[in-house]
Each structure stands twice: as C-alpha cells, then as structure tokens.
TrEMBL record:
Signal peptide residue numbers: none
PROSITE patterns reported in the protein's UniProt record: P_GLUCOSE_ISOMERASE_1, P_GLUCOSE_ISOMERASE_2, P_GLUCOSE_ISOMERASE_3
Pathway terms, separated by semicolons: Carbohydrate biosynthesis; gluconeogenesis; Carbohydrate degradation; glycolysis; D-glyceraldehyde 3-phosphate and glycerone phosphate from D-glucose: step 2/4
Native species: Siccirubricoccus soli
Name listed for the protein in its UniProt record: Glucose-6-phosphate isomerase
SUPFAM superfamilies per the UniProt record, alphabetical: SIS domain
E.C. numbers: 5.3.1.9
Entries under Pfam families matching the protein: PGI
Amino acid sequence: MNEAMRAAWAEIASLAAAPDAAAIRPLFAADPGRFGRFSWAADGLLLDLSKTSLNAPRLAALLGLAQAAGLAERRDAMAAGEAINATERRAVLHMALRAPREAGFRTGGEDASAAVAQVLERMGQFTRLVRGGGVLGATGERFTDVVNIGIGGSDLGPAMVTRALWTPAAPMRAHYLANVDAHAWEALRPQLDPARTLVLVASKTFTTQETMTNAALVRDWLRGTLGEQAGQHFAALSTNMQATAAFGIPAERVFPFRDWVGGRFSLWSAIGLSIALALGWDAFTRLLAGARAMDEHFLGTKLEANLPVLLALAEIWHVNGLGYPTRAVLPYDERLARLPAHLQQLEMESLGKRVALDGSAVAQATGAVVFGEPGTNAQHSFMQLIHQGTMPVPCDILLVAQPDHPHADSHRKLLANGLAQAEALMRGKAAEEVEAEMAEAGVPAAEIARLLPHRIFPGNRPSATLLLPHLDAFTLGQVVALYEHKVFCLGALWGINAFDQWGVELGKQLAGPILAELEAGTPKPGAHDGSTEGLLRTISGAWRA
Ligand code: F6P
C-alpha cells in the first residue's frame, strides 16, 4: 500500500469515527436536494445512494482512495489486456466478449476481439439452426429442451438470465443441472424426452467433478434410448479442447472461449449458449449490448459519476468505514430471483481474499457476505433482522418501473413495498412516534410502556436503490456488468486479486481421499480428525445397514 493510500484510508477512518457517521435521516432533513446530489444515471439506469450516510466530504475521501489506488489506471490496464490476474498470469477481458469486433481488444499478441467474433458467429448460426429446426435430434425430432450441465460460473449466470427473460412463447426451454447430488437429475429427468433434448456440457476446465459426473449420467440416459447416436445431442462450452474431444464431442460442436474469461464473468461467452437457445439470438445480442453500454460508461465516465465506482465506494464506506460486514440484494422483481445467487458467486468468490496482491496480509476487511431474496418475499423472511437487529445490513433494492404483465395493481403494490422498505430502513420510527401512534389507537399507558422498546425502529439503515425502466435483455446486461465492474473496483481499492479463487481448492483436494474411503466402505484409520473419521464411520455404517 502506498503512502497516498494509507492517508486515504486514515481519512476515511477518521470520518467514519465521527459520532454522526452512520446517520442518514438528518442528512435528508438538512438537504432537500439530497436525492439529486446523490443519485446518478447511465443509459436509463438510475442509482440512488442518497439513503446511505455518504455526504460530500465522505464521498470526496472515498474518491481520494480511488485516486490513490490508481483505480482508473488499473481499469485501463484491464481493458488493455494486461495480465492483471497476477496469480494466474492472465488477462481479464470479459469486456471483449460484448464489444464489437472493431473494439480491438488484444492480449499477449492475440486479437481477442477477433477470437470473440468468430465464436459468436458460430454460436449465432447454431442457435438459429437449432431453434429453426435445421439441426435435429438423432431421431429427426426438433430440440425443445436444452440442459446446461455446469456449476458455479458455468451455471449461475446463464440460469439467472434465462429465468429473468424466458417467456412461454419461446420454442425452447432451458434447464440447469449443477449439483452432483443426483436428486437434481432425478427431478429433472421426467421433464425431458431424450429425442428432443440437447445437452450442453458447460465447463471452462472440463474437469469439474460435479459437471463431469452429471454429464456421464445424462449421456447414459441418452444412450439408453438413442444408443451411439446420443452423441448428436451434445455440445461443449469450454476452454479445454483436449478434454472435450476425450469426452467424445466433435470439434464442430465445441464452442470455445479463452482463459482470460473468468468463470463468474463468463455468461457473455460460449457459456451463454443456453441463453441464446432459450431466448433467441436477438435477445443474447441485446444482453451483450446492455453490458457493452455499461462497459462504455465505466471506461469513459469520470470516477465521481461512474456507477460501478460509486457502488464500490459505498461498499467501502459500509464495510470498512462503518464495519457492516454483510449486504442484502433485494430485487423487487420475481424474474430476478436468481440474481442474488449470481452475485454471491461474483462478489464472494472474487473478493473473499485475505492477502494483498503482493502476498502480504490485507490491512482492512475485504468482501462482504452477500445474500438475498426477491421482494416482497424477503420482507416476510429476514427483513426483521435488517430493520431491528443489532447488525445494520446495507441493502441493494432493485426496482423495475414498467412490468411486462397487465396487472397494474400488483405492480404498484410491488413497487410500493420496495420503496417503503428503503424508506423505513432509513427513517426508522422514534419512541415519540410509536407512543403517539399507540395512544391514538387507544392503547393504555401501561401497555404502551411495556411494548415501546419492541416497537422502536432505529432507522439510519442504508440502502442503494437501482431503478430500471424495464426488465429486458439490454437492461439486464447493464445491471450484471455494473456489478462485475463494481467487483473489479473493490479488488483495486482493497489491493487484492479479484480474479483468482484458490480458496475453493482445499475442499476439492480433501474430497478425493474421502471419496476413496466411501467407496471402500471404511475410513482410513488416523487419516482424519476425530470428527471426520467419526462421521465417516457412522455414514458407512448407515449405508451398510
Ligand atoms: O468453484 C470454483 C470454480 O472454479 C468456479 O470459479 C467456476 O465458475 C466453477 O468452479 C466451475 O468451473 P468450470 O467451468 O471449470 O467447470
């Protein structure tokens, strides 16, 4: 960490130590123009940060950190194809996936934009053929169902997008098989007809245990009906051409991408093929266009009006300034039900790091715990804790102004609830308000005194509201890219590598010997701690019984 960064962190800490640092309500009372000053727009999206305790000096200090961290320079280095994923010595070029051919993204001598254009061309052609009946199943039937077998980034993004945008008028349904728990496959299988099912094996590495196990299960099922012709029902989405060939998928059915696409940033690559098949090629290209619009905003807008930067700075204020270690994502749109799951991987796999780029221990907290549910369901689940618990939880509230159904009354209620949650969190309800309300309702004084502490809301609980004019492929592309760039910014501000994920390896390593012991039906004495050995013995016994 350089001197300027140390000074910026110290400035943020000193502002956050002030007694009123977390207060939001008084900021509105003091400044009627607060909404205008603390909300920003980009291509139709509106980000309102006025219901946080950011004010001009706090924002200036946070922008000072961004300057000191060289955020703009690091962003430009990413766009220039430098190997900013230092631990894996890789570039980070998901922006190339949604840029036009002429954008000219390059890395290590490779024309990344040309490589992208080539694969997109093939994906578009394949999509049109499959949806139009130009590519048929082994028995001559049209494909009506696509099963994407993948996990993590090879599942969450595409599953989230198709859930958000699919309509029953579409000629194909998409299904997502991720967990190695075969209950998932057993639940899906009855919904499928082998003659009409196309299978995409989606895996960057093509070695992931869950995916390869599920791919083998589904291949066996297809072979049961179609014999050796089952191969015609497969395609692969991967960087590992050797492994896809070894699995028996011919090169013309492999849609590749490069190692400069991280798994959690890969829905725009070949990994998004299930999106194109389910929603159509136009929708997929609109999704890319929305993300591209956000890329252009991110690359070309000064930091103080740059949505991803501002979202990241608000998070720094909450996590590091005020010590709020979690964040809730509340999309007030049922179609975005899987967005929290996608953001969990995007943010927590990227930012859950305890060492800086140079290997030294980080000097401040990193990645927040992200969780969420669609509103209004969340209100009847965990919002109690967010309103009255001891730990403030900043919320991202996503609202969509215009619905795609004709039920205006339902939509008004949905919006009213989303707006009300943000207002309630910020305003709270003081003792005098509770008292007056109960007295007016005729509650006896003794009862008011008894219930008063339980009915006070502390308020001053922050939320960011993201308002979309409409939910469609373009705006969804904008939103996902917004969060991707926010993650990049936080990585740069915290001085960590947001693009590796070594933390997932140890569990995978230890699962190998445990699997062998489960196969043998008995634990290897002394190989584990007492708990693991005890559990293994009990499980093996239960299995035998
Ligand atoms: O969980 C670790 C991880 O490597 C993720 O980063 C990735 O998205 C997921 O596994 C799936 O990996 P693959 O696409 O290589 O199967």
